[in-house]
C-alpha cells in the first residue's frame, strides 16, 4: 500500500460519521489472524502484524463506504418517494424526464432506476398511469368535456389521451363514461339530467 492509498483510506475512516460499522467475513478473519499472531510471537510477527493492520484498514474503509452508500441510497429513495407522492398534484405540468430527475437532484438514469425499483414503471409510464387514473376519476364524477379533462390532466392532445386511456383501461373514455351512466342508480341519473337542464 502506497502513501497516497494510505492517506485516502485514513481520510475515509476519519471523515465517516459512523461509529459502529458492520463487519464482514474478511474483517473477522483479519482480527482473528492478528490475535493469533500476537499470541504466538515469531520472527515474522512484526511484519505479519503490519500487513494485517494495513489490510484491516483497507477492509475497514470498504465497510465504511458500503455502510454510507446504503445510507445514501435510503436518502435518495426517500427523496424520490416524496416526489412520486407529490406528483398527482402536478399532473397538468408538461414533465420531462430531466425535469423530474432535477426535482430530486439526481441524474436521469439514476432517477429512472430508482423509480423503476419503487413503482415497477419507468418515470414516464408512471406519470401516464397517474394521469389516466385521474382522468378516469373525472370522467366518472363530472360532466366536463373529455377534451377538457384530457388537457387538465396533462395530456398534450385528445388523441394522445385517447391512446393512453385505451392502453390502461381497454376502453375509450366515452365508453367508460357511458358504461358508468348505465350502471348508475335511476335517481342519480335523474339528478344528472336535472343539472343539465338547469
Q: What would you say this structure looks like, in words?
A:
This protein has 198 residues and is mainly alpha-helical. The protein folds into 2 domains: 3-72; 124-197, Homeodomain-like (Arc Repressor Mutant, subunit A, Orthogonal Bundle). Helix content is 76%, strand content 0%. The chain has helices at 3-15, 25-39, 45-86, 97-103, 108-119, 123-141, 146-152, 158-169, 173-183, 186-197. Helix 6 packs across helix 8 (158-169). It is rod-shaped, with a radius of gyration of 30 Å. The N and C termini lie far apart (85 Å). Residues 67-72 have low confidence and may be disordered.
Helix content: over 70%
Poorly predicted runs of 5 or more residues:
67-72
Order of helices and strands: HHHHHHHHHH
Strand content: under 5%
How would you sum up this structure in a few lines?
This protein has 198 residues and is mainly alpha-helical. 76% of the residues lie in helices and 0% in strands.
Question: How is the topology of this model organized?
Answer:
Elements: H1 3-15, H2 25-39, H3 45-86, H4 97-103, H5 108-119, H6 123-141, H7 146-152, H8 158-169, H9 173-183, H10 186-197
